Amino acid sequence: MRPEVDLRWYKHLGGERQFVARLNAGVAYAYGNSVLTGIPFEKQFFAGGSSGIRAWQARTIGPGNYDRGILRSDTLRKAFFGLDQLGTMRIETNFEYRFTVAKKFFGATLKGAAFVDIGNVWNLRKGESILVATPALDEQTVFKLSKFAQQLAVGTGLGLRYDVQYFVFRFDVGLKLKDPQFTGSDQWVISKFLSGPRDFKDSYNATHGPDTYRFIQYNFGIGMPF
């Protein structure tokens, strides 16, 4: 069973300005004899990417507080490197302010956008993720209402849209504000970006390698994100 909802609200602010809010949520639940096999890989949810939380690459957020750095073994981290970070539940919301930069720009209209993206994916039950190598990691991936705020990823950014009427070329730059793989005040990685990104990235790479940390994510796409 996999219900999903996508709600959007568009508010025109006069002229070429527009504010858009979006909520996307879904859950996949295995029951009966399908509990033994679980949710198929291609039916699980992911976060990040050019139409989601744009400060992260697709399939690199969560589930929950998932942190590969808890694996002290380099061999284990290498074994889990590059695996899609998926979940059986997703909650994601996006806020975007759209405006026109230039009406005549090389034969098209150049539009801009400022956005904030919030959300994550989770597992409904323990043992649902192929990413789990320890009980501690398994615990981090499960949705708990008491930890909901701690497990949200928050990103912001700016974008350009080259609108030629029939289709739109889109370029967005996302910046991480809050990263749920960390704990406490360390989740607000924007402070690390402003105070000393190089030292932070070196420390992260040493404990999470071969994973590396990126504060900024570039996204290219065709068509509007929502």
**Approximate strand percentage:** 35-45%
Helix content: 10-25%
Q: Number of helix segments?
A: 4
Report low-confidence residues grouped into runs of 5 or more.
none
- Based on CA atoms alone, the radius of gyration comes out at 19 Å
Calculate the mean pLDDT score and round it: 91
Terminal-residue CA separation: 25 Å
Tell how many strands the DSSP assignment holds: 7
Let me know the largest β-sheet. Answer: 7 strands, antiparallel
What's the arrangement of strands in the largest beta sheet? 1-2-3-4-5-6-7
- Compressed to H and E, one letter per element, the order equals EEHEEHEEHHE
Class inferred from helices and paired strands: alpha+beta
Shape annotation: globular
Task: Characterize the structure shown.
The chain is built from four helices and seven strands, in the order ββαββαββααβ. 31% of the residues are buried. Helices cover 14% and strands 35% of the residues. A seven-stranded antiparallel sheet has the order 1-2-3-4-5-6-7, with no helix packed on it.
Short description:
By secondary structure, this protein is α+β, with helices and mostly antiparallel strands. The protein has 4 helices and 7 strands, in the order ββαββαββααβ. The two termini are 25 Å apart.
